[in-house]
Design a protein that fits this description.
alpha+beta, two-stranded parallel ribbon, 3 helices
Length: about 60
């Protein structure tokens, strides 16, 4: 589990959410968010409206 090198935020989230562990969106986002010196960067959810809605519900920063 977790982010693979060169994997997009959308790809990572979709992989984590479809895993056998049935992660919550919050947990999947924690696995997939990139960090800048310990500060989580907004997820790039361009073109993934379903994930944008989930990010808004979970109060997770994203860009589109």
């Amino acid at each position: 589990m977790g982010r693979l090198p060169l994997e997009s935020d959308v790809g990572c989230l979709r992989k984590e959410l479809s895993s056998d562990m049935h992660l919550s969106f919050q947990t999947a986002a924690n696995f997939c968010q990139k960090n800048d010196h310990g500060v989580p960067l907004p997820l790039n959810l361009k073109g993934a409206l379903d994930l944008q809605v989930q990010a808004e519900r979970a109060n997770i920063a994203y860009i589109n």
